[in-house]
Amino acid sequence: MTSAAIHIRDLQKTYVVSERESGMKAALQSLFHRRTTEVRAVDGISFDVAPGEIVGFLGPNGAGKTTTLKMLSGLLYPTAGEASVLGFVPSKREKSFLRQITLVMGQRNELYWDIPATDSFELNRAIYRIPISDYRQILGELTELLELEPLLHKPVRNLSLGERMKCEIAAALLHTPQVVFLDEPTIGLDVTMQRRIRTFIAEYNRRYGATVLLTSHYMADVEALCRRVIVIHHGKLLFDGELASLVQKFTAHKTIVVQLENPNADLSAYGEVVSYEEGHYTLRVPKADTARITGRLLADLPVVDLLVEDPPIEEVIEQVFAQEGS
Amino acid sequence: MRGLAALYVQQFKTTFASMVQYRASLVIWMISHVLEPLVYLIVWSTVSYTGGGSVGDYTTREFAAYFIVLMLVNHVSYTWIMYEFEYRVREGTFSVTLLKPVHPIHSDIADNISSKLITLPLMVLIALGLAAAFHPLLAPPMWAVVAAIPVLILAFMVRFLLEWTLAQSAFWTTRVTAINQIYFVLVLFLSGQIAPLTLFPAPVQLVAAILPFRWMIGFPVELLLGRLSPVQALTGIGAQVVWLAIGFALFRIVWRAGVRVYSAVGA
Questions:
Q1: How does pLDDT run across A277-287, given as a tens digit for each residue?
Q2: What's the start-to-end Cα distance of chain A, in Å?
Q3: Does A98 touch chain B (CB under 8 A)?
Q4: Which residue of chain A is at minimal alpha-carbon distance from B262?
Q5: What's the CATH fold of domain A252-309?
Q6: How many domains does chain B have?
Q7: Which residues in chain A show pLDDT less than 70?
Q8: By the CB < 8 Å criterion, does A152 face chain B?
Q9: Nearest neighbour of A108 by CB, restricted to B17, B21, B93
Q10: Coil, strand or helix: which one is A40?
Q11: Which residue of A lies nearest to B7 if distances are taken between CA atoms?
């Protein structure tokens, strides 16, 4: 037993996939002899997540994020290693385990298409055996937090993608799971809807003390919700720590935005000029030299305003994968 | 149990709400269910009529009774789970089901019973219409009508368990349609669907008695037609119970293995 809500050690998942060349001959050959290759989707990763923590789980497509989430929710058997969620072994799929978790996948739906979402909610109430008073309360809260009221009584097929996603999330949380796996919950949604779902996840975590493991391609989601991030690539763990130290670790540069009185100066001697816009120069400088260059800029030039920034998180992540890929 | 009862009630409401959304497909489904026995009825009535009023031990009016009752029995024991399962596995929607703290067979049973209850009044009306048109000879003894209740329930359970188990072949192969085709042909000939089994040669009748198909369809029909003795009826119930036990054992084994396969290749 461990006090962590999620605990994994050396977790591995290897898929055996059959492959063949295209064409008739290869098709016939494959009748008698199948060639298979092993694909290591998850290759020995370990981490713990404390109860109530929200952790961002990052990696490019095919990194092994979804495979990991599926192993943690009991949909996939690990090839090797150990996993425990709330003290349960997920692959045993015990009922008391399934009652305490949820997995929301951006493209999967659990709502009946032709009937209003409330009817599907009622079915989930019966499946999870939620007492009617608890059900009314949580449904009330979800309706308020996700602004579901106008959507509840329309057939699901008539809802927009964002509206449907909100209903999907509500359906997945009616049983107030203690551990929430979110796989791209904001995919394909517009910025306003993304923000609403983000706020909601933070609020759900606060209200119910739920542990959240979240994958997203939108760094805004991660920045808004996760102090801690776990980055994987090719099934291996690259980084596990605070978002801020990810930036520290993987960026060799800082950005200096400087505004000058006379807009026609040449700043290339101070660093790489990334852009120039309406009197604002953006310079990229080596992290170690930031203080020195800032001092020189202030001493040498008629500076109106100066700002030192970390590069945007997207850029950092891109760099992490680029470094590993090379 | 109370939890399961609540689930069945809720599934009934959900199925009802979904079904009324699809009135057109509901009608098409009903027509296909009526059309098949109707075709056999007309064919056999014609054969019987031209053959001097009977074929084997069935008169023209008994054929009418046979196929009208068969239509109703088939309505009770029919499942569509084999098409459904293939879709679920192929589209990956099965993952959502697997995350639920309830065995998926419960939702399927509830959905099946619900759909049938909803369409039953219409089926009965159609049967009455056919009876008016074809004048079936139907006079079963009272005991047979009473016995038909457990027999029909058993027929449904055996067929449901076997087809649910067979449907799980979708975990292993993507060519479920081929397996379904073989299965449907076997059912068609060996259950009494295409013709009463007593019209087949003795070896075929023996095979039919050993295999489960007759016990899912033909046996309840024969019972309701008053063609069986109490001993034959009891023997039939015994066969149903044996097949139920076999079906349940297979269902447990295949389910466990199937989920393992599904979970290994990528749910």
A1: 877 888 888 88
A2: 40
A3: yes
A4: A76
A5: Alpha-Beta Plaits (3.30.70)
A6: 1
A7: 1-2, 20-21, 30-31, 107-108, 324-326
A8: no
A9: B93
A10: strand
A11: A126
Backbone Cα Rg of chain B: 19
Q: Domain range holding B36?
A: 31-92+129-265
Is the ipTM here above 0.85? no
> How far is residue A224 from each of residues A202, A203, A246, B185, measured CA to CA in Å?
9, 12, 15, 59
Which of A75, A91, A126 lies at the smallest CB-CB distance from B95?
A75
Q: Is residue B14 part of a domain?
A: no
**Beta carbons of B267 and A119 less than 8 Å apart:** no
For residue B22, is it within any domain?
no
What tens digit of pLDDT does each residue of A79-106 get?
999 999 999 999 999 999 999 999 998 7
Q: What share of chain B is helix, strand, coil (3-state, %, to 5)?
A: 80, 0, 15
- Whether residues A75 and B9 touch (CB distance < 8 A) is answered with no
- Which positions in chain B touch A77 (Cβ < 8 Å)? 260, 263-264
Distance from CA of B247 to the nearest CA of A (A): 24
Residue A215, strand partner residues: A183
What does the alpha-carbon distance between residue A130 and residue A100 come to, in Å, rounded to a whole number? 12
Task: With respect to residue B103, please indicate whether it lies within any of the assigned structural domains.
Answer: no
- The label of the residue with tokens 């085709």 reads B181
Q: Residues in chain B with pLDDT < 50?
A: none
Tally C-beta pairs within 8 A across A and B.
Answer: 79
Of A46, A45, A69, A48, residue with least CA distance to A4: A48
Detail the DSSP E strand segments found in chain B: 54-55, 58-59
Which CATH code fits A6-12+43-247? 3.40.50.300
Q: What's the first-to-final CA gap in chain B, in angstroms? A: 30
Lookup: tokens for B227: 């063609």
Burial A123-155 (b: 16+ CB within 10 A, else e): bbbbbbbbeeeebeebbebbbebbebeebeeeb
Q: Which of B3, B14, B266 sits opposite A129 (nearest CB)?
A: B3
Q: Taking an 8 Å Cβ-Cβ cutoff, which residues of chain B contact chain A?
A: 3, 6-7, 9-11, 13-14, 17-18, 21-22, 92-93, 95-96, 98-102, 107, 260, 263-267
d(CA B261, CA B265): 6
B73: in domain = yes
Nearest CA to A56 out of A232, A190, A174 is that of A232
**Å from A196 to nearest chain B CA?**
24
- 8 Å CB contact between B41 and B134: yes
Quick check: B7 and A128 CB within 8 A? no
